[in-house]
Design goal:
The structure is a single chain. This protein is an alpha/beta fold and about 375 residues long. The chain folds into two domains: about 160 residues, Response regulator (Rossmann fold, 3-Layer(aba) Sandwich), CATH 3.40.50; about 150 residues, 3-Layer(aba) Sandwich (Rossmann fold). Helices cover about 40% and strands about 15% of the residues. It is built from twelve helices and twelve strands. A six-stranded parallel sheet has the order 2-1-3-4-5-11, sandwiched between helices. It has a four-stranded parallel sheet with strand order 7-6-8-9, with helices on both faces. Strands 10-12 form a two-stranded antiparallel ribbon. Helix 7 links the parallel strand 6 and strand 7. Helix 2 packs parallel to helix 11 and helix 8 crosses helix 9. The radius of gyration is 25 Å and the shape is elongated.
Length: about 375
């Protein structure tokens, strides 16, 4: 009997060693496994989106997170397939820059069914998608504000150089991003509203979409210069890449001058949005006149941290993430215009950047 009892004790001990701990219900991670998070990017061709994904990779390494990064190459169906594949592989926690806003509804239903969580940046999720559950978040910047800051920088320029806008008339070439994208719609609205609020009449000489791409912007501006060379006094682009494409078109067309006292060697100012390193370098060469910081590090840190809090069961409604507090006041822009989901929104501020700004002085190449 003693021999049989000893054998039973040994068998029980061995079986205990082979047992795996059960999955935690709230965090969804096993106690002996790393947190697993997937990053779904609409593309990483744009500098802002590359900076965003690079920072998520850095954060994941610092937190010992198993990170899976997917680039949809701006293909909606491919991004949906990527999400479904990741869910099948057991991923439940996501940081997402979707190809279009409407994808967020389908994404969040699938993620909710898996008991997971997601945070969105840059391309806004819909209000209805955030209402799928409390574990879905918006961590981005109000696009109307970014456009209004760009308008303010243009107004500041003409206030200092009134001879360049006789009768306070802004004759603009406007380079849009992707038509219908929330950033395109709201940045345009904010830009025009701020200029009108500052007492300027806005005449759009020409506008078109360049889908956020520098080469497409350069092509359009080259054509516009040929058609309207003496009729415009400013170029506004909805991201820095397109603005730098416009700068190249102007340089190639010989629209440069020796006097840079107005802040640019181009004959008319060109402005962008994002404040990428390339944009700041162009400003330091007196080419790009000004930009607006869309904080890739701030947005990505906030989006990553709120999902990481869910995955590690450290989240409480209203927690700050990435140093950004959860919003408490609704704004006019979706999805942060609905009080039912306002505390699921983290609004990362835009910052206007010209050569007098603290951000430029701290970050421009020397």
């Amino acid at each position: 009997m003693k021999k049989i009892s000893l054998i039973l004790v040994v068998l029980i001990a061995l079986s205990s060693i082979g047992c795996k701990p059960r999955e935690q219900q709230a965090g969804g991670t096993q106690t002996n496994e790393r947190v697993r998070i997937a990053l779904l990017m609409r593309n990483v061709d744009e500098q802002f989106l590359k900076d965003y994904s690079d920072n998520v990779r850095k954060l994941a390494a610092q937190r010992n997170v198993d990170l899976n990064v997917q680039d949809a190459r701006s293909d909606q169906q491919q991004q949906l397939t990527q999400l479904q594949t990741l869910l099948n592989q057991g991923y439940k926690y996501f940081v997402i820059v979707p190809c279009i806003s409407d994808l967020s509804d389908q994404f969040n239903q699938l993620i909710q069914n898996a008991g997971g969580a997601a945070s969105y940046s840059n391309t806004q999720p819909t209000v209805s998608s955030l209402k799928v559950g409390p574990n879905f978040f918006f961590a981005s910047s109000p696009e109307f504000v970014g456009g209004s800051y760009q308008g303010g920088l243009i107004a500041d320029y003409f206030d200092r150089n009134p001879a360049k806008a006789p009768g306070k008339a802004v004759n603009m070439l406007l380079i849009n991003g992707q038509m219908g994208h929330p950033a395109q719609v709201n940045r345009r609205a904010g830009l025009l509203a701020e200029l009108r609020n500052r007492g300027y009449t806005v005449n759009i000489i020409a506008e078109d979409a360049a889908d956020w791409a520098p080469d497409r912007a350069q092509e359009r501006v080259t054509a516009w210069i040929a058609a309207f060379r003496d009729r415009f006094n400013v170029i506004a682009a909805q991201n820095d890449g397109m603005a730098l494409g416009a700068v190249q078109a102007m340089i190639q067309a010989g629209m440069v001058k020796n006097d840079t006292s107005d802040g640019t060697r181009l004959t008319v100012p060109v402005l962008g949005i994002d404040a990428t390193g390339d944009a700041l370098a162009s400003m330091s060469r007196n080419e790009l006149y000004a930009t607006v910081l869309q904080d890739a590090v701030g947005q990505s840190t906030t989006a990553f941290e709120v999902v990481h809090q869910i995955a590690t069961r450290s989240f409480n409604l209203g927690n700050p993430a990435g140093g950004i507090p959860a919003a408490t006041q609704v704004i006019d822009e979706a999805p942060a215009n609905d009080p039912a989901i306002i505390r699921q929104c983290y609004l990362v501020p835009f910052v206007p950047v010209d050569k007098n700004s603290d951000y430029y002085k701290a970050n421009a190449p020397r």
